[in-house]
Amino acid sequence: GNSVTQMEGPVTLSEEAFLTINCTYTATGYPSLFWYVQYPGEGLQLLLKATKADDKGSNKGFEATYRKETTSFHLEKGSVQVSDSAVYFCALYNNNDMRFGAGTRLTVKP
Amino acid sequence: GAVVSQHPSRVICKSGTSVKIECRSLDFQATTMFWYRQFPKQSLMLMATSNEGSKATYEQGVEKDKFLINHASLTLSTLTVTSAHPEDSSFYICSAPRRAQETQYFGPGTRLLVL
Questions:
Q1: For residue B44, which of A37, A84, A59 has the smallest C-alpha distance?
Q2: Strands of chain B, DSSP E
Q3: Does the beta-carbon distance from A43 to B41 stay under 8 Å?
Q4: Mind listing the pLDDT tens digit for each residue in A46-95?
Q5: pLDDT tens-place string over residues B39-67
Q6: Closest Cα of chain A to B110: distance in Å?
Q7: d(CA B63, CA A23)
């Protein structure tokens, strides 16, 4: 079946630090992969996506590359800001089935 | 702007009553919608897949008689929490896929509090 395994948090970083949140998946075929972000008190928002192998999704300084050989979609940002504090969810969509990782809470301190 | 809406955004009800939550895709048709539940500081849990014109598909452990789902049209799915109890208090979120199912749009969520 389809599943997503995401690095557990919480993660606490200082401003301008480098961020990596690991995400690996299990799926048959060719799923689409996503990162969603949930800011405090708000609903989920799509952060970035990739729909095929070797695609790189990017948005707001965040990037993630769809690696089929390692079944991974790690989220990275070179320099985090306080405003990036949120919960990040890795997700996949495959054959009308959507699965989420457990979420990683990121706190960025000034 | 929002492409998936939910109503109501917040509801407080007495134990034993039923609560209906609507999920609408605003400018696209969705033959499939998903219903999730989110507990505080935890991940989303997929409850069921709502299918227009057919029965919903429920995840293991989700009581279909308690969480009634009706996909009445290509833009509307409803989740009814029947005979709600305090343990049903949670944040319920729907989503709908768009553009050949490459992207999911999420509703803003409905916070249910059962007293």
A1: A37
A2: 4-7, 10-13, 19-25, 32-38, 44-51, 57-58, 67-73, 76-81, 90-98, 103-106, 110-114
A3: no
A4: 899 999 999 999 999 999 999 999 999 999 999 999 999 999 999 988 87
A5: 766 678 889 999 888 899 998 899 999 99
A6: 10
A7: 30
